[in-house]
Design goal:
about 290 residues; alpha/beta; TIM Barrel; eight-stranded parallel β-barrel; two-stranded antiparallel ribbon; about 45% helix; binds 1,3-dihydroxyacetonephosphate; FBA_II; Fruc_bis_ald_class-2
Length: about 290
């Protein structure tokens, strides 16, 4: 089966009150581990790539080819979409060309009129190729240069305007942030989520910064219209922890423990376990 657009799987999740995990990939190991986990859990999945990660992996075309080849080689049968995460205007166009089946255009740093105009153009182009589109209103906070900003709150009126363009799903800040949540984080703002959900007329919403949010808050957000949850940091943390334990136990110095196929295995296994846990929490297990 070929890669699919994310539209149908997210609409089904929205109707069925569960969410699709959108996991960021960084290399071949991440791709294999996430696909193996979702195949095992019988869950649809979105593999997503940031522009920085795409540069690291030698370009959008390489990402698309790698994901397709690994997907086919592993005989994956659950629905899989390949999505650009936080794309620029040019990046989104390049991904459509390179064979991605879904793109995010993040125009949240432009003034709203320009975000609206550029979102409209990407939606038109993407839909002409059967590619799904995510846009963003208001920005998502996070850690930059060691400083963690507070989660931002999107304006429901702006969300309604972008939703009316025909975007497939919409990212809107509800107090969520990328990276590790600070100890004094206030939690998701359900009042704002409810206002946004009412304003967008049934459009599925995207929760960025899905790592480290207590699952009771995640479950509540899903019942209120969130149908795609982005996860990056959690997989990086479990990979690093398992790899550190392997090295600290001296296993890289036993026999051929330094072989990368052995050295990277505990980290990859930890990603598989974390993804299975998350898709069960998101409710997408057995929904393929
Ligand atoms: P985390 O790294 O906090 O999981 O956020 C991922 C994300 O939202 C990617 O867009």
């Amino acid at each position: 089966m070929v890669l699919v657009s994310a539209k149908e799987m997210i609409e089904k999740a929205h109707e069925g009150h569960y969410a699709i995990g959108a996991f960021n990939i960084n290399n071949m190991e991440w791709t294999k581990a996430i696909l193996a986990a979702c195949q095992q859990a019988n869950s649809p999945v979105i593999l997503q790539v940031s522009e920085g990660a795409a540069k690291y992996m030698c370009g959008f075309k390489q990402c698309a080819d790698m994901v397709k080849n690994i997907h086919d080689h592993m005989g994956i049968t659950v629905p899989v979409a390949l999505h650009l995460d936080h794309g620029t205007f040019e990046g989104a166009k390049a991904c459509i060309e390179a064979g991605f089946t879904s793109v995010m255009f993040d125009g949240s740093h432009y003034d709203f009129a320009e975000n609206l105009e550029k979102s409209k153009e990407i939606i038109k182009l993407a839909h002409s190729q059967g590619v799904s589109v995510e846009c963003e209103v208001g920005g998502i906070g996070g850690t930059e240069d060691g400083v963690t900003s507070n989660g931002e709150l999107a304006d429901p009126k702006e969300c309604a305007e972008i939703a009316s363009l025909g975007v497939d799903f919409l990212a809107a800040g509800i107090g969520n942030i990328h990276g590790v949540y600070p100890a004094d984080w206030a939690g998701l703002n359900f009042e704002r989520l409810s206002e946004i959900d009412a304003a967008v007329n049934g459009k599925p919403l995207v929760l960025h910064g899905g790592s480290g949010i207590p699952f009771d808050q995640v479950h509540k957000a899903i019942t209120m219209g969130v149908s795609k949850i982005n996860v990056n940091t959690d997989l990086q943390i479990v990979f690093a922890k398992a790899t550190r334990e392997y090295i600290e136990a001296g296993k890289d110095q036993q026999g051929k423990g330094f072989d990368p196929r052995k050295l990277l295995k505990p980290g990859a296994d930890a990603i598989v376990a974390k993804v299975i846990e998350m898709v069960n929490q998101f409710g997408s297990a057995d929904k393929a």
